[in-house]
């Protein structure tokens, strides 16, 4: 367990005696010993700064001591501290490209800006994959430790979401008419179903590991518990874009799959919403360092609204004449209902 080092009065150097130096030496020894355990120390969500009982004292120590007394870790030990949370960076960068693609007010150069974020996201994703692979290659025991860790395991699906966001950006920027051949459309259809299977596997797998290896209390519940179902929540936006690219029954299959899997992810997040609301009613707000994580709860509704509305707009073009015995009318009704459901969820 991470322990706060002894306080030193830097305003009065004469008070720093031999005992204080020995205490600092013991602290450095304990810190390096902690790095040899299965967990990266300190982990992003388990560091003293996020501990409500130690954060204030630790921050005051940092202010008095400065950063010069931090242990000089070797490169290999720094790699051990590379966690799954780094993939949230590629999630955000990919969504920037997604937002730029959907901006309704177009101007020359907007496409190039979006492509820049898209390519930057690919580079960052490759960097994250290399670093996390090095960590598990150099320290094999940290692989299972990261999956079974109560905080870090919640961010394992971030790698899958980042991959799904890259696929979405490829469909948006690569399959536009005149930019590539039809071969890319075919590839993206296959990759869509591969990602759908991957997202379902990771969502079920992470929750199963959590429920099998961890014991959680209501006081520790935060909206971050929604994160394992996030891979399912980016399927609908991808299905909407891809449904506009491919013709006929293949587009209909993709849109139906998008509606179904998006519903699974949103219903799981809705149940976590209910549990978190109960936690707020009975225990009050989380500790200050954890409150920014409450904004994670905005994501499921936002992805679902965008996915349902866009899939509803794409559906009329892929409806066969005999669909549900009413043909194109079913597509028109679905489009209208999708708009109203989106407004309802937004409210």
Describe it for me?
With 347 residues, this protein is mainly alpha-helical. It folds into 2 domains: 13-76, no CATH class; 82-346, Glycosyltransferase, CATH 1.50.10.150. Helix content is 64%, strand content 0%. The chain has helices spanning 18-34, 55-65, 75-80, 87-102, 110-138, 141-148, 157-174, 182-213, 230-233, 235-243, 248-283, 298-314, 328-346. Helix 5 runs antiparallel to helix 7 (157-174), helix 7 (157-174) runs parallel beside helix 10 (235-243) and helix 11 (248-283) runs antiparallel to helix 12. The two termini are 44 Å apart.
Mean pLDDT: 78
How many independent structural domains?
2
The main pleated sheet reads as: none
CATH architecture of the largest domain: Alpha/alpha barrel
Query: Helix and strand succession?
Result: HHHHHHHHHHHHH
- Give the N-to-C terminal Cα separation: 44 Å
What is the helical fraction, as a range of percent? Answer: 55-70%
* Poorly predicted residue ranges: 8-21, 27-68
Q: What is the CATH fold-level name of the largest domain?
A: Glycosyltransferase
CATH class of the largest domain: Mainly Alpha
